[in-house]
Amino acid sequence: MADHVWRELKDACRDLEVTISETARRLDFKGGGWIAIKSTHTPDNLRGAGLDFAVLDEAAFMEPSVWPQIVRPMLLDRKGHALLLSSPNGKNWFWERYTYARNGTSWRPFRFTSFDNPLLDPAELEAIRLQTPERIWLEEYMAEFNDDSGQVFRGVREAATAPLSPVPVGQRCCFGVDWGRENDYTVIVVIDALSHQMLAYDRFNQVNWSLQRGRLRALYDRWQPVSIYAESNSIGSPNIEALQQEGLPVYPFITTAASKTTLIESLALAIERADLALLPDETLLDELTNYRMERLPAGGYRYSAPSGLHDDMVIATALAWHACRFSAPSISFA
User: CATH 3.40.50.300 in the chain, residues?
Assistant: First the structure.
């Protein structure tokens, strides 16, 4: 982020007489004064001489100590000012400063949504809203603070309370597979792509690969899925190749930070909007309820289960839902 702001600052000052220090990311002006761009990755590196003005960009994602222990003392001797900018990141220290400013103090609070930006098309924003989970929409686009402590899936229990309707004849089933061996579980989830119902799952661990593929084959013989999406990272690829050799319609899903974000947010949106009926299974519901996200300082999110808990059911369900949404191309296996 510091690099990005540094490039924009140099571009904005290109017609001014300045001395540029690339190492320090600092501009010194001919008439006196300077502007420097600093990263808070190592907060103690910020310490130094007094400041007239400080801007903390994406303040909500900085360590809580940066403002009170480092930056604010640097403003004291020059009676300097500060501007704290950020998207919300839960109700942390930045939310506390914003709340303090709203209570008639010497601080002034501001809040702007994406609709206040004249450069953004309202129609495009509306299209984004329809494709975005509410928690992300409220924080990223509506600048609202959320106190759900990073919870990803909303409406989980409600999605499992409605009785499942009978699956129609000729159902179009899809599988999602998350592989595991010892500590983690292998999970196979079955979803009907027509009724959007979760029909069954198999969950097991400490089973060798041959037996794991055999259990998947047994589910395949029962449900005859049109497509099976399985995570291909690491241990997944050999199993996928073996199943393809047997003629099963298995398609690899390569998990990256970007693809996982899309996968999880698609499932979150489906559950939130009641587009997917879940089985009333406590293991599944607990994993979904406990699943968490962490917003990264450079943008984007990191999704994972809390330390010591599992997310195998979450990933398998997300893959099965992905399979329902995207029909795999017709291919032949040698």
Answer: 2-115
Neighbours of 4 (CB within 10 A): 11
CATH 3.20.20.150 fits 156-325, yes or no: no
Summarize pLDDT for 243-293 with one digit per residue, the tens. 999 999 999 999 998 899 999 999 999 999 999 999 999 999 999 998 988
Instruction: Compute the radius of gyration of the chain from its Cα atoms.
Output: 25
Is 139:265 a contact under the CB 8 Å cutoff? no
Of the chain, the percentage scoring pLDDT greater than 70 comes to 93
Q: Is the pLDDT of residue 70 over 60?
A: yes
| Distance of alpha carbon 260 from alpha carbon 240, whole angstroms | 19
11-49 pLDDT, tens digit each = 998 888 899 999 989 999 988 899 999 988 888 888 877
pLDDT digits (tens, 9 = 90+) for 206-218: 889 999 999 999 9
pTM, 2 dp: 0.69
Order of strands across the sheet with 227-231?
197-204, 186-192, 173-178, 227-231, 250-253
Range 2-115 classified under CATH 2.60.40.10:
no
Name the one residue in this structure whose structure tokens are 């953004």. 120
pLDDT at 221: 93
With CA atoms as reference, report the closest residue to 291 among 318, 314, 271.
Answer: 314
Tokens coding 82: 């500060």
Q: Based on the number of CB atoms within 10 Å of its own CB, is 317 exposed (0-12), middle (13-18) or buried (19 or more)?
A: buried
Where are the domain boundaries for CATH 3.30.420.240 in the chain? 156-325
pLDDT of 299 strictly over 80: no
